[in-house]
Amino acid sequence: MAAAQHATTRVGRSRNRKRGAWPAVRGWLFIGPVVIGTLLFNVLPMIPTFYTSLTNWDGISSPQWIGFGNYDQIFSGGDPEFMRSLINTIIYTVAYVPIGIAVGLVLALLVNRQARGMSIFRALFFIPVVTSLVAIGMVWRWIFDSQYGVLNWLLGLVGINGPHWLGGSVSAMVAVLITGIWAIMGYNMVILLAGLQNVPAELIDSSKVDGAGAWSRFRHVMLPVLTPSLFFLLIISTIGSFQVFALIFVMTSGGPGDSTYVYIYELWYQTFQLRKMGFGSAMAVLLFVVLAAITWVQWRLSKRWVFYQ
Amino acid sequence: MSANATTTRRRFLGGGVALAGSAGLAACGGSSSGSTPKGWTSVSFMSIGDAQDQAMFKEMIAAAQKESLDKQQIKIQWRPAPGDDWERTTALFASGTAADITRMDDDRVYSLALDKKIWQLDPWILDKKDGMNKDDYYDTFWTDNTVEGYQFCMEPAMGANVLYYNKDLFEKAGITAPTSWTEAWGWDDFVTNVKKLTKKSGGKTSVYGVGVPVNIVEPMIYGAGDTALNADQTECGLATPAAAESIDAMAELVRNGNIPTIDIEQLPLFNSGKLAMAWGLSVQEISKNIKWDIMPWPKSPLYACTKNYARAFVIPKTAKEPKAAYLALKALCGKAASDVIAKHQWAVPNFRTAAEGPAFTDHPAPATKKVWSETLSIGGEHPVMIRMPRGPIGLVWASTFVEGTLANGLMSGKMKTADYIKRGRKLVNAEIAKEKWNSKEGLKKLQASGALADDSAKVVS
Amino acid sequence: MIDTATAVDSEGSVSARRTPARANRERIWVRVLVYLACIVIACTTVGPFIWMLSTSFKLPSEAVTFPPQWIPKPFVTENYSYLFNNDILPFGRFFINSAYIAVLVVIGRLFVCSLGAYGFARLDFPGKNAAFVMLLASLMIPDMLTVIPLFSVYTKLHLINTHFPLIVPPIVANTFGTFLMRQFFMGIPKEFEEAALLDGASHLRIFLTIMLPLSKPALATLAGFTFMNSWNDFFNPLIYLTDVNKFTLPAGLAFFQGENATQYTQLMAGTLLSVVPTLILFIAAQRYFIRGISMSGLK
């Protein structure tokens, strides 16, 4: 009691001293390094891209101003692969984000216990995350191979005639998704695991005493506390999924035909194969706008379902 | 609790100091490897390639130094680099930090020349004292990659495209392989043999007849008498029915399962005896269990169904001592270095005596070596060197028909040949219209740009 | 280091309240299922890894065969010895470069990102939301295009072919780390700080003595990912380094991807070797990932 009274007086005094500009200065002292660093190394280098998108620069000679020419070409259908690459990317994202997060959640719930061997399982689930995407792409390319791939061989052992994975339009996308999710699920698991540690043991205890089943416990106690982490994964996964490239480059080269040809693949092709850096920059600017819009929507919606303690 | 606070705070401060210190350290000093003796001129050389290539480049440099560069007091500073990604090269050229001799993709030379980023080599090559002897090399050395007839790069070796074949599979099918390009199969014989060699089981192919490269369309087009672009380069070629039929013939073999689709890698297939004929293998990677040899590609009416390829060496304008760089490049294309190339069976050297001498021929496999070197000298009736148009439109043509989704669609059996041709032609024609291109534009632009050091100096007229 | 909260096994504290027999039956059933699921999933994550291991001991020409061979015949170690005994690529040096860069980046980033995250999570000041929006926006433009302007700037500052672009930008220009820590901080109940705030503690002190110790799982996570991203970074070393002695491990491994064919067996050997440190780190950091938090620490 006495301590509380003493505390109020002290707070009162300190408030009088640190008035005015101090909260702002202090706030910026905390976030300063990160904000300035991001500005210098990430944001400022983006600005030439905006400028380049209004030119037909090829990366070597001096750029020539063409105004909205690149954007015209995109929106008037001048690049047939643009639409295809955008659709493929959306398909990929719509599957990758929810399934990836769901799988990560299942894994996190499985290993969130101090039972024997769980730490080993956690490490084993994390192995794909630690390996380079190029190596993963190569190994899974072999696994999916119709001639000498392990997957079809295993399927053959149980009498199933496996499809020509990387040669079929739909199956190639499925193969790439499986590989992508496999590569990331350990990462999602770890993020959600960290989030799960914030669940107050008290609430779990009391819900068990109240007779709540495991599902109810999950839905009403753990899930709300997990929402900040889920939100984080939602944003990061969506942004990452829209920029998928390396895995597809190694596994299918965008094929067969253009069934797995994604947005960044077309951007890369235009910029570095056709040497149309101006056009590639326009595609990058459009991607930025799309991602910004999606993120903004996700952010606004998050106020309804994300719960901070 | 307070002990904790002090510890954590101290750790943080310590971390901050370490951070600042290391950033400082990291910023200073980037000394290059190797040391140039005093008074010598140093020439940096960026060799792009994988670990095996680099081993060969190291030997090449040593051979070149011993043969002539040591006497001229020029020291090559070796900068090995993996892969030939254009992002990196663009950044290097854009910032003026490209090596004095840079090995790069041959397609890029034209645009670099036009943008005044690399030296024209003709004046040095024609020099009385330090020039090069035209007859030392095959013609392809001088004609394969010129910019409107001028030399802007050197290609010490060509990757000769031959067919590797499995001797056992041929024997079983009762087929004898030709041993020289003059005896190469005609198209019909080729198709018959491919079908004979293909084995199927349960609807799926268990042994493929032949594996082809994606750019097979180029020789197929030229072989049918058509061209990539029309004569004055104002319109995309590939307009004749003969060319369409020719491409479709190959696509048909893909659809029928005689040729593996583009997603299947050929080397493992060949090594497990499931591919009778393959292209583009590396000798060191063929399994010891396979008895193999090389044979020529078949002839389509006018050309052989293949083309050679090469990587080019250029000298950027930012080289500090261009003449020394030229001398180093000359040595890297000279006899000693070319013998190293021959020894490693890396590619076919353009230096005549190296390609025909013991270094090249003295290998256990393949038995029929001359099939390789013949690709450089065969002219006349069925040349292997197809003169694809260089320049911006040539680049767009290659990117459209050979490198992008169209090619992938065709060679995975998913796209109809007619669609492939129609869409590709549309894109190329659009590009020609945009650039207002014709065959004289290239030379005009080159002369206007000031990229030529001396426009009367031309090694090949 | 003494934690501010005592670790309690939440499951353990509950079981005592139920009838032992019923609890045991339920727990066994659940446990068996859990272990089964874990084993199946572990097979899928480890399987390809074992395949890579197997390939790394094969002869290059036997790398891919049909039917797939799990046990290499013949079994060779030349792929590994090649990595260290060839006279072109200094793999030992690659390792050291990767290691010191990664360690610096981890230390720096934990420091800088958690500071920033605290500011975003707990403080209110003008410009905060705009700054956060800017951080998020920086994630949305693909790397490959921003490299060229950056490259020119580094050239003018003579920072090309140094390790600066691999160390400093990842430390200070990292939205992911700040975002992660922010979400985690926002998930910590405010009760923990309220007492200290009432006592007049400065925010810096609260940050150092309360938030950070409570955030060990998130910090460990961030450290793990940071190490991994820095260690596996393939793109940036290849762009900014021209002297092969300065290369990091992934850049060095890129030498095994040729124009025509990839040297699979050596690439697998090299990749496996580079996976080992991160894996060891992760296993060692395991104990920070799982802790129970009990509110009893407050009282």
Briefly summarize what is shown.
Chain A is mainly alpha-helical and 309 residues long. Chain A has helices at 2-17, 22-43, 46-52, 69-75, 80-111, 118-130, 133-144, 150-157, 169-196, 201-209, 214-242, 246-251, 263-273, 277-305.
Explain how this protein is built.
- The complex is a heterotrimer of chains A (309), B (461) and C (299).
- With 309 residues, chain A is an all-alpha fold.
- The two termini of chain A are 26 Å apart.
- The relative contact order of chain A is 0.12.
- Chain A has a single domain (79-305), classed as Orthogonal Bundle (MetI-like fold).
- Chain A contains 14 helices and no strands.
- Chain B is an alpha/beta fold and 461 residues long.
- Chain B starts with a helix and ends in a 12-residue tail after the last helix.
- Chain C folds into 2 domains: 15-78, no CATH class; 81-298, MetI-like fold (Orthogonal Bundle).
- Classes of the chains: A mainly alpha (309), B alpha/beta (461), C mainly alpha (299).
- Chains in contact: A-B, A-C, B-C.
Largest sheet of chain A: none
Strand order within the widest beta sheet of chain B:
8-9-10-7-11
How many structural domains are formed by the residues of chain A? 1
Largest interface between protein chains, with number of residues from each side: A-C, 111 and 116 residues
Q: What structural class do the secondary elements of chain B suggest?
A: alpha/beta
Query: Per CATH, which architecture of the largest domain in chain B?
Result: 3-Layer(aba) Sandwich
Assembly type of the shown chains? heterotrimer
Relative helix content of chain A = over 70%
CATH homologous group name of the largest domain in chain B: Periplasmic binding protein-like II
Determine the strand fraction of chain A and express it as a percent band. under 5%
At the fold tier of CATH, the topology name of the largest domain in chain B is D-Maltodextrin-Binding Protein, domain 2
β-strand percent of chain B reads 5-15%
